[in-house]
Inverse folding.
């Protein structure tokens, strides 16, 4: 983590506020919304017939069911998915909703629910030791992991603040001392190192402690939250904002985890804005919190599913509750934004907050909300200073015709990062085409390891072989060691995202394997009159000694054809390897020694055909694999991959990824079911140039790539097959000898 | 096939019409619609802003692109999916659309398209021999199979009739003699046996020849169409209506093929109604054509997908073109029907026909069309006389909450039938839960065996082991021989579909295997306050000598848990067997000898959990299998099954199928993820009674089933565990000792 100027600024900021270090009782409620804001929501509800009203009625209905009921605050016992876990989770949501309803309606019955539960927690919490099901390195007390205790702090802190005025001073003290203090002390003292991490868990923990601080007028808590347990600014909320986001707003763990972290970031920022407006937290680091939200939204499939790189569950979309909260806060602090309305419409609810009221009103008056976000080609740096690689999303088409190819050359991404340098993923027509497995997890299902990440996440999903990138000698990048991987990142050599005809991103790393230089160029070509792009993928691997290089393509769909005969293991099959993820793959078929280095795989996904044409070395191998080996508990999806395997010192994989044709089972009419790419030739491949000739739709494409990184801006003159090509820059692509 | 009274009636009917056997020129157009009807459509288009207008504009746009263009009529060369196949298919559709547009708009440019194409076919067709890609027993001339030639006759015949008045007498004669006669003669003479089959191919062939007859004023053709090639009434269109439908309208090949056959049935019936109204073809056999359509629609999943039993492709739904045609005709001849509007709305187009105009108008005036068909519990007999078994669909719930369990005890269903007596399939919440594989086919994709049925359809999908029914000694029912299977059908012992609390269907067969009596009772219980049913499945197998009995459950979804330890083949796996479909299954895991005869499998499909609890014999086996062995070409989907295997003379499988809980990956909240069924006991199982005790939701369910088929209506008194139970009938179910 590099702080430099940002760190300096923060120290100054903190100085300003720690001067006013004294306990003072301020107005309540304040942490979530003020009395004035609640009055505005109440006012809006008089006329609102949209999502605000609907959300209010829904929450009211759910909460009313608890009025006058005895609500259980059980002794912690079960892992995620089990009764006590789900009950405590339901309790904090119930308190939060009841607290909001109390402020909107003035009905004391809601405040009673919160009060009774808080007083029960004041009984329970002092008795708690580590949770009996705790298996993580940061065990919880109320829950199996401390992260869930931090969730509890956020919502229970807000709830306390919401009913502050309903409680007697004695009750307030009892709750502060007995419900909150044991948990706050636990996270800030007993597992202080965890609280001080730069990690999404710490975002929740600092937000939780900070919100409890605001709610209970405990400035010590607030300062711990802001500056870390030791209040030295090396940890805490501001350090997290500094450390977890790049200047572009890229969240180091990736978009799936942005979704999770964005709630405590926004929720505590809102409490800070209400109580310490001079901090201008929403403007902090050039409004990085806004960038964080918008870039996470841009990193979704058109169905709202977050890109599944790093640990990610594909069923999670931007309709998840955390983003309902973030949207309302973003609307309040950053103003109107059509993309937020697109998402809010899908969420079909709003936060009962002034931002939520604003969204509801905007949706009511604007009937022409687009069906999809305004997705555009995107490039984001990673790292606090923006110098730890990044991610590029090459895009083409609009709405349901959007094609997105993701090139990932970020840093590792903390404990949820995968060993996937220079990985690519492809989405098209709303579907995943070349997938990242995501994470192996059945969230909330107790039978599946308590709903936690399954061992196959580390064993398979994180490993390099689970990705569409090169594996050297069947080892994962960085030896599969997080502590090593955290020190490195991929590099962008250059990118050109301006041209419609030819977008390029060039990446490399010398760090994933000792002694191996890896370089991947992805070209997105949009040929004249074409609707869908053609991708050219040149993956160079250079080493002084021979290695085995595996490049998998996790294609999603039905294999339609392969252009060469292969040996299928039809009555008996074995796993592909014994470790580093290979043990999870069945070897279904293979070509042990390619006779023709040009291979072509066509598959069908939904109604579209896709072909991957590749030029390998002579005598290379092709392996048809399927996930599912060594998985007795059926934790993994049985999905296929086609692995290109070459042995040598310097190996260049040249691939073309084509989107073609249409399948319609209802009309029985299919068109362009065949690839239109008939050959790939490698005319030159050395330290200066890689020159590739491709016949596509019966026309030659010549692609000249400059490999000498010192010559990327120079003028080049090169004769190919008797024709002279002249250009300036890092590459040139010619269709029918005309420059694209 | 039993004809009896229906056959007599038909002979009388035919007598009436064959008396008027003479060639006479009548008004044209007549086969598809008359000039008067076209005038009505033209009139409707003046004001229609709905599907009629939209369909008209769409067809106009598509057809206008061909005006003045040279359209290829290539020499037949390619199989389905290939250029010449798709071109000829496109040509007949184009001629039909252009013919309709000519009659609506009066624009001669449309008639020119048809005329030119017809004259080209008049050049081509006399030169044709069997298609070079012909591999079926009924080769085609223009296409690889005669069926497609029959499709061509239907549409080209209609097209000729539509431009009849635009053609000169010389042109008419040339087309009749050279375009039509070679194909008509081919199907009625060269492959007469095929033309005379009782099979969907013959429906198309007779409709094609009949429509060409109507169009070209050739009564000989019409009579061949009606009465068979030899005009003796043993074959032909009326024999097909008699032979292919049960009195309930069940089409012997199943709903997927009803979809296909319904178009020529309705299209030729329409031409007959226009030219031979006295035949009252739409009232024939108590309006069996209407029943055929409505029962096929009832046999769909809520997404419109036809039940996938027999050869069926799951991507085909009721939006397919054949049903657009059938709907318009049904509307015209049988009148308004809300279910038709539900389907038409999904189809989002109508036929340019008076029926289509009527549907469009009804949709425009009725804005509250339900989203789903009005699905109800359904029972249909099979066989021309309704005495060849049948199918029962037990249903519960409405709309997206519909649950449907299909019990199949039909006849074989001709060449597309499967060896699946007493099979069950379950659909719930819009998804297939216990699936029938359907057929292995990638329709229209040339790379996949020319788009034809793949060998794996016969090899796997048809075999008994591919179904949720019992396989004896690893042999398929009837030895897997169609000619044997065609002689038999399953039997319904009785059913009770009236009770909401307990619906029952009891089925048996002694024919599937020599010496084995098989009997399956399915009980659909809806317990007090339950939303979803609980199914009890008692499958008895009785033989004099020991056998191996396999009962697979092709569950769709992720395995969540199994209640007993099993041995998983994690690094090496083998196929389950060598023939009869077993060779297509990998043995992933097994329990070689059950210690506890009570097994329980829980799986997740979509957002719902399902559990299959089973009581087997001691020392039975459980096999976890996956489709995909011996499938080097990736023709089959890699989907799982759990197979219960018991050995002995008399084996009773008792299963309970439970629908429970909810998974929500977005909110992370799951509920009722565990089965609530804790035990199954078999208290008695003999020739008189099977008595089962189940603990479900901590309450005992006692189910008493009468096995003595002579005693199904008698009064029974039976003491179970010291309690006396008295009831009259074939079964009784008690919850907490109270009769359901």
């Amino acid at each position: 983590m590099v702080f430099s100027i940002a760190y300096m600024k923060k120290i100054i900021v903190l100085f300003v506020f720690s001067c006013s270090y004294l306990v003072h009782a301020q107005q309540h409620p304040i942490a979530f919304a003020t009395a004035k804001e609640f009055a505005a929501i109440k006012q809006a509800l008089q006329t609102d017939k949209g999502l605000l009203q609907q959300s209010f009625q829904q929450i009211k209905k759910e909460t009313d069911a608890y009025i006058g009921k005895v609500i259980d605050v059980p002794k912690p016992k079960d892992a995620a998915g089990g009764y006590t876990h789900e009950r405590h989770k339901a309790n904090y949501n119930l308190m939060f909703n009841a607290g909001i309803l109390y402020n909107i309606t003035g009905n004391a019955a809601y405040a009673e629910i919160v009060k009774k539960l808080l007083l029960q927690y004041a009984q329970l919490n002092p008795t708690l030791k580590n949770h009996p099901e705790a298996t993580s390195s940061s065990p919880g007390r109320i829950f199996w992991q401390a992260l869930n205790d931090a969730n509890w702090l956020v919502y229970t802190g807000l709830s306390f603040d919401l009913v502050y005025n309903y409680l007697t001073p004695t009750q307030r003290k009892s709750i502060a001392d007995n419900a909150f203090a044991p948990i706050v002390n636990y996270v800030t003292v007993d597992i202080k190192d965890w609280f001080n991490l730069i990690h999404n868990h710490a975002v929740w923990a600092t937000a939780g402690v900070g919100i409890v601080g605001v709610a209970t007028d405990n400035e010590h808590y607030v300062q711990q939250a802001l500056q870390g347990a030791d209040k030295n600014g090396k940890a805490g909320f501001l350090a997290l904002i500094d450390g977890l986001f790049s200047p572009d707003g890229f969240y180091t763990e990736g978009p799936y985890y942005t979704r999770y972290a964005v709630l405590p970031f926004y929720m505590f920022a809102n409490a800070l804005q209400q109580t310490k407006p001079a901090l201008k937290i929403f403007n902090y680091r050039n409004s990085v919190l806004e960038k964080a939200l918008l870039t996470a939204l841009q990193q979704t499939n058109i169905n709202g599913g977050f890109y599944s790189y790093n640990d990610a569950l594909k069923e999670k979309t931007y309709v998840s509750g955390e983003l309902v909260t973030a949207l309302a806060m973003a609307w309040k602090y950053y103003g109107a934004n059509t993309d937020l309305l697109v998402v809010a419409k899908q969420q079909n609810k709003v936060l009962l907050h002034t931002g939520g009221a604003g969204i509801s009103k905007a949706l009511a008056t604007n009937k022409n909300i687009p069906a999809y976000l305004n997705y555009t080609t995107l490039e984001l740096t990673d790292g606090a200073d923006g110098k730890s690689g990044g991610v590029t999303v090459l895009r083409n088409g609009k709405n349901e015709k959007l094609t997105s190819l993701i090139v990932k050359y970020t840093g590792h991404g903390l404990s949820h990062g995968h060993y996937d340098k220079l990985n690519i993923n492809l989405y098209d027509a709303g579907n995943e085409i070349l997938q990242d497995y995501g994470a192996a997890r059945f969230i909330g299902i107790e039978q599946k390891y308590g709903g936690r990440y399954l061992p196959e996440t580390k064993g398979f999903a994180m490993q390099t072989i689970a990705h569409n990138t090169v594996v050297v000698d069947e080892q994962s990048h960085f030896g599969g060691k997080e502590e090593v991987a955290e020190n490195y990142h991929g590099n962008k050599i250059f990118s050109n995202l301006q041209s419609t005809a030819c977008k390029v991103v060039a990446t490399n790393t010398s760090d994933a394997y000792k002694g191996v230089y890896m370089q991947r160029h992805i070209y997105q070509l949009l040929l004249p009159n074409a609707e869908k792009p053609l991708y050219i993928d040149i993956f160079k691997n250079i080493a002084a000694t021979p290695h085995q290089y595996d490049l998998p393509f996790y294609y999603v769909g039905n294999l339609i054809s392969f252009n060469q005969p292969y040996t299928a293991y039809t009555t008996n099959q074995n796993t592909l390897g014994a470790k580093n993820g290979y043990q999870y793959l069945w070897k279904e078929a293979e070509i042990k020694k390619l006779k023709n280095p040009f291979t072509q795989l066509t598959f069908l996904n939904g109604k579209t055909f896709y072909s991957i044409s590749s030029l390998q070395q002579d005598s290379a191998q092709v392996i048809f694999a399927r996930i599912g080996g060594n998985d007795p508990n059926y934790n993994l999806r049985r999905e296929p991959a086609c692995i290109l395997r070459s042995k040598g010192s310097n190996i260049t994989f040249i691939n073309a990824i084509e989107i073609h044709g249409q399948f319609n089972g209802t009309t029985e009419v299919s068109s362009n079911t065949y690839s239109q790419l008939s050959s790939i030739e490698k005319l030159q491949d050395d330290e200066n140039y890689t020159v590739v000739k491709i016949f596509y739709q019966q026309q030659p494409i010549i692609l000249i790539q400059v490999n000498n990184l010192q010559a990327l801006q120079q003028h080049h003159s090169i004769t190919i097959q008797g024709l002279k090509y002249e250009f300036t820059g890092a590459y040139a692509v010619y269709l029918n000898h005309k420059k694209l």
